[in-house]
Target: Large ribosomal subunit protein uL1
Amino acid sequence: MKHGKNYKNAVAKYDSAKHYDLSKAVELVKELKYAKFDETVEAHISLKLGKGQTVRDTLVLPHQFRGEKKVLVFCTDDRVKEALEAGAAYAGSSEYIEKVKGGWLDFDIAVATPDMMKDVGRLGMVLGRRGLMPNPKTGTVTTDISAAINELKKGRVEFRADKGGVVHLPVGKVSMPTEKIAENVQALLNEAMRKKPSDAKNDYIKSVSISSTMGPGVWVDYKIGE
Model:
């Protein structure tokens, strides 16, 4: 991959082979940013996973950095009021299933009660490819609508290892204080460690790096449980 002049200038400002403590790594990412917009900071955690092993879960980051998300709840009519009072932007059954079938996607997250999944499952071609399909593994298929919406409003995010065993997750904006970004990264590290498969090797976490949207990556000398 070819990089432009700004990227190369940023790389020249630090030792790209060195591992920095978390706070210093975050400070470097902030210093190395060069885009005119408020770049997102992303964490990259490389895991040593065996054949058939995967890591996937959700967590609420300590410090939020994204705007209010619109939540759509697929539920029966008798639970619509509950969903709306809990903070859902939309709630209902067949009318919203038909709207989504027609291409309507004016929401960020979809939640469904278990009894609705038979019908919601038919929206796989629309919701699945956009990562919006409710899933019990991520807490978006649940009977406790209020609790799910509350966590989503707080900023609950999903993380999962890709085929190469790497977890990628946005953890802040470069405009945020260093300590808040660092605490978000640490929370992700702790949660990834908590999800370590029982038969995974001791060197389960192979490496950790962070970067901004346009900037170079910075290696992190990570610690668990802080």
